[in-house]
Amino acid sequence: MAEEERFKRWSLKESDLDNLTPLKARDFVTKCFFEAQKETFARAKQDLGISFDARDLMTTVEGSIKLAFRGEGEDFERPTKASLLKVVEALSKKASSWGTPQDIIDYHKLQIRKIISLLRE
Question: Which of 54, 50, 72, 47 is nearest to 7 (CA)?
Fold first, then answer.
């Protein structure tokens, strides 16, 4: 796989919205947060010549998602539209504290808000 393809920016596809449930939306939050961090590392790699392991990054992301749910007093296994919105805000702050550039945060936050907006209450 070419380097540029590996770090192509993730975007929502119409098919992603098929059979949308809160659990599927939660999984998209995880995917989106992972892709945002992957993009951040890709930029850093270009600037600093560093590398990263995608599996380690996914483990960190999954843990961060679960901690964000817990920190917001929400249930990871039973997400709701409201809990997902709270978690996305918490993750945005976490990403910023990790040094994720604001344009990456804003882009991915917009993608996931499109998904969450389609959920029923």
Answer: 54
